[in-house]
């Protein structure tokens, strides 16, 4: 700021055509008008969109605005572990999406041995979560959590008098004013959303909604587990059939205050006990023997790996038209196929047949550019040589005889203990692949009230 003060406001610009006025605006706590305008590109969420709800609006913001927002994001990101409860794992340093999935997996595996016959999980679906959030509620939440006035004021100005225009047929439509919602495409968007949703989790944790399921902590203490969330994917854990009704009342109050309303048609009640029978007039109840997806994971080994194979073929098939040589297709496999395979293998280990089929599929794609398994897929470079980096005359091929070891390592990493995670898993050697779970609630009274502190915020 001292350097900005020493600059003269109206000096002629250099080759970059930028004048010092931008710095003075930020110093004076006023933002350029370009910061408040965005172009919106609607991306289809389904293969054949039929109405406007089948599109995801992405706000394309100025690069200088993103730099400014990234500065604020990096400054208070380190406070999130103290402000956000263990129920939320998205965009919080030290937490992972796998923590939320592990909780669901282990509850499904252990609830059948308990006496909670009516136990269920309610998978919520917020309708247009980012686009419907009330901005005044978001600002009040930041004030309630103890953010300094200079921070709250900066974030409020970034969401005041914003305008946008849609890109339709490569042309800009007429601009319109945006009065609600968090700007998708902004580096601050996920952080502001999880801070807003934290209000809901605080009410649930206080027992205002439902009782939750009792779990054992690392200290062999019984604690209620009421919810788990990854950004806008929220799951409630209910002990009795009357708990979902109590949760509905809380969700309605929260929706009126925050603008986040639950889509009843897409909200699913998942019975956790095989003998459970649930009925609900509003939410969809998962029938016995059926499966559902949770954070990209299908609750069935065969269905999930078949679906992932189809998804990989679809994504690689779109990009293969831009490739001509195997080294380009290797890059596609590295950036599209391998991350998805490792993500699924972290929770659902494939059978030997599925593993060999996936290896064969990718090997054929790399060397032939097709998915025809009947074609000979033997490469013109031996696998041990192809996996070497380019500097060693290799191709950096991810497909080799040792690729399954990498997948095994990904799965094993999810089974070893990690004291830094709120949900810790331990590998039990006497039971092979059996996973023993415990909930390590590390939240103390100080961290629970950290949101009210003015000094450290």
TrEMBL record:
InterPro entries: DNA/RNA_pol_sf (IPR043502), RT_dom (IPR000477). Residues 24-320 form the Reverse transcriptase domain. This is Reverse transcriptase domain-containing protein.
């Amino acid at each position: 700021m001292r350097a900005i003060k020493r600059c003269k406001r109206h000096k002629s610009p250099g080759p970059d055509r930028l004048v010092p006025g931008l710095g003075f605006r930020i110093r004076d706590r006023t933002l350029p008008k370009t910061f408040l305008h965005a172009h919106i590109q609607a991306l289809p969420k389904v293969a054949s969109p039929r109405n406007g709800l089948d599109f995801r609006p992405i706000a394309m913001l100025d690069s200088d605005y993103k730099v400014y927002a990234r500065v604020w994001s990096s400054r208070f990101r380190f406070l999130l572990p103290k402000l956000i409860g263990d129920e939320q794992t998205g965009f919080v340093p030290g937490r992972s999406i796998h923590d939320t999935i592990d909780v669901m997996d282990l509850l499904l595996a252990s609830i059948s041995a308990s006496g909670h016959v009516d136990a269920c999980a309610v998978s919520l679906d917020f309708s247009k979560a980012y686009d419907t959030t009330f901005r005044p509620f978001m600002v009040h939440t930041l004030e309630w959590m103890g953010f300094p006035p200079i921070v709250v004021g900066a974030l409020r100005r970034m969401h005041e008098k914003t305008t946008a225009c849609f890109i339709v047929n490569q042309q800009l439509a007429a601009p319109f004013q945006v009065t609600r919602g968090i700007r998708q495409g902004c580096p601050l968007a996920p952080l502001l959303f999880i801070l807003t949703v934290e209000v809901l989790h605080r009410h649930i944790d206080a027992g205002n909604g439902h009782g939750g399921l009792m779990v054992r902590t690392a200290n062999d203490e019984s604690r209620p587990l009421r919810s788990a969330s990854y950004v806008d994917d929220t799951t409630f854990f209910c002990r009795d059939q009357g708990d979902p009704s109590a949760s509905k009342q809380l969700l309605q109050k929260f929706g009126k205050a925050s603008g986040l309303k639950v889509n009843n048609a897409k909200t699913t009640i998942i019975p956790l006990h095989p003998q459970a029978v649930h009925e609900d007039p509003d939410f969809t109840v998962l029938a016995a023997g059926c499966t559902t997806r949770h954070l990209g994971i299908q609750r069935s080994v065969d269905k999930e790996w078949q679906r992932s194979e189809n998804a990989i073929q679809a994504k690689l098939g779109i990009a293969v038209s831009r490739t001509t040589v195997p080294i380009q297709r290797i890059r596609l496999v590295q950036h599209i196929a391998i991350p998805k395979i490792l993500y699924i293998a972290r929770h659902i280990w494939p059978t030997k047949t599925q593993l060999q089929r996936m290896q064969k599929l990718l090997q054929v794609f790399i060397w032939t550019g097709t998915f025809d398994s009947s074609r000979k897929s033997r490469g013109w470079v031996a696998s041990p040589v192809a996996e070497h980096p380019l500097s060693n005359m290799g191709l950096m091929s991810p497909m080799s005889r040792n690729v399954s070891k990498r997948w095994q390592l990904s799965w094993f990493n999810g089974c070893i203990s990690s004291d830094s995670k709120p949900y810790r898993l331990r590998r039990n050697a006497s039971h092979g692949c059996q996973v023993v779970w415990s909930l390590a609630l590390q939240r103390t009274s100080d961290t629970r009230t950290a949101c009210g502190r003015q000094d450290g915020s």
